[in-house]
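Chain A, query sequence.
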Amino acid sequence: MRMTAVLISAGVISLCAATVAWSQTPAPKGAQNAAPVPVRASGPQVACNGSPDALGVARVVQIDTTGGPGFGFEHFKQLDFLRDKEVVLTFDDGPWPGKTPAVLKALADQCTTGIFFSIGKHATYHPEILRNVAAAGHTIGGHTWSHANLNNKKLSEDQRKEEIEKGFSAVKWALEAEPAPFFRFPALQHPPEIVTYLGERNVAIFSCDVDSFDFKTRNAEQVVTNIFKKLDKVGKGIILMHDFQKHTAEALPEILRRLKAGGYKVAQMKAKAPIQTLAQYDEALKKDTKLPTVSTRPIDSVVQTISE
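Chain A, predicted structure.
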């Protein structure tokens, strides 16, 4: 099976032929007669529970973030790279216990993927959950250190930069690896001078095309309605959700089912290169933040049953 990968560089879209190897995951126990589900074998695999009619991943695009390209027609209209009926799933504000794992399960059940824009503080609270996001093959970007509104005039320019850089440093610390140079502003507030700064740092900026408004919705059914009311009108786009929200985790299985039933396909966005965090913020994070101790030992070397 062949797939065409798209590379986006400095605002210019070019196509290159790329062959992506595919493998088949074993059918789960009790489903040996089910049709095999293809999963990508090159690079980190997207977690897949083996459903024969899964939504899957239709296309992988690689992003050259040089100059800080912007994505999402809510604010950026230059790079219209998505095809009709193609969506990108995005999740803000995690990682968070219970909710992020439920989102991961829903995605794995449909063998599909998204971009997770992590809050730096949350990454330091729950590094093991963020590592599970990475292990499942999803893309991880930054969403500031504390979810500060960077359009707040009370913040100095240095404080705004610190929110961005310390956030990325925290995600790096949690992952023990550099995340993607992908960033989403809290509340989608884009102060021009910070947009310029991110361009100088070669960080891509994400707005959205479809907002789930899950942060102010009281039930899962309304989250689904919010998404498809807009998506069915525009026909494609970057969907903004929050893996911090209970109703999003509850709604996601139905959202993915309706995407599949409606003929929508998921595009995965990956960065050409990871972000290079700044040493001063890496060090400040360690100095100023009481980071939890993360054990790298296997569980059976830490906890042993001696009596039952």
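Residues 73-289 form a domain with the TIM Barrel fold (CATH 3.20.20.370). The chain has nine helices and 14 strands.
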